[in-house]
Amino acid sequence: MLLAALLALVYSPPAARAAANTPGLGKPISPSDLKAWDITVLPDGTGLPPGSGTAAQGAKLFDDKCALCHGQGAKGGIANMLIGNPSLTAHGIASNKTIANFWGQSTTLFDYIRRAMPWPAPRILSDDDVYALCAYLLAGNKLIPEDEPMNAQTLPKVKMPNRDNFIIKFPDRI
Ligand code: HEC
Q: What are phi and psi of 146, to 5 degrees?
């Protein structure tokens, strides 16, 4: 009996062995559950949701939810300035990297704000709110006109000043 069981184990096909070796924890995730976590926006705008927002709407949201840390008018406070373009080389490697002087892709703004801000309560903003905050910060940095709404079509077209200054290590992979 024992020998038969041992032989069955030894001769079981690889797939069956692999399944038998798992700890048996967890369960497959459904596409609808996965959707809540699937929020990556790629540099070219792939993954941007529907919605839209203007700088004027973003200014109100910013006063309410962001100025506490990033300062009035996003000029900096206990957290980094989000509007402002200081020299990127004034203090060597310690120079202040900001959206205007450093960020390579405008679409990172949407991805980052939606997933991480406001710092104490990430994911509370609607997609319209996030577009409005992107418009406010981009207009404040003079990268778009004050009245241009940001949405899935307009945001990827905004060219960040530092975009072409990154050294791409593996250009064939992007
Ligand atoms: C309680 C403080 C706090 C609040 C409120 C807050 N932030 Fe932040 N924010 C931070 C901190 C701290 C960082 C740096 C996080 C890090 O480097 O990991 C940051 C980083 C950022 C960055 C990246 C800045 C850079 O130069 O890399 C952006 C953009 C940003 N916040 C936007 C917002 C927006 C928009 C809001 C309002 C919806 C907001 N934040 C509210 C604390 C805050």
A: -50, -35
For ligand 1, is residue 120 a contact (CB within 6 Å)?
A: yes
Q: Is 74 in the pocket of ligand 1 (CB under 6 A)?
A: no
Distance (angstroms) between ligand 1 centre and the Cα of 21 equals 44
- Euclidean distance between CA atoms 137 and 14, whole angstroms: 55
d(CA 135, CA 24): 47
Does residue 86 have a cis peptide bond before it, meaning omega lies within 30 degrees of 0? no
Q: Is 66 in the pocket of ligand 1 (CB under 6 A)?
A: yes
pLDDT tens-digit profile of 98-145? 999 999 999 999 999 999 999 999 999 999 999 999 999 999 999 999
Distance 23 CA to ligand 1 centre (A): 39
29 contacts: CB under 8 Å, gap ≥ 6: none
Give the contacts of 140 (CB within 8 A, at least 6 positions apart). 55, 73, 74, 82, 83
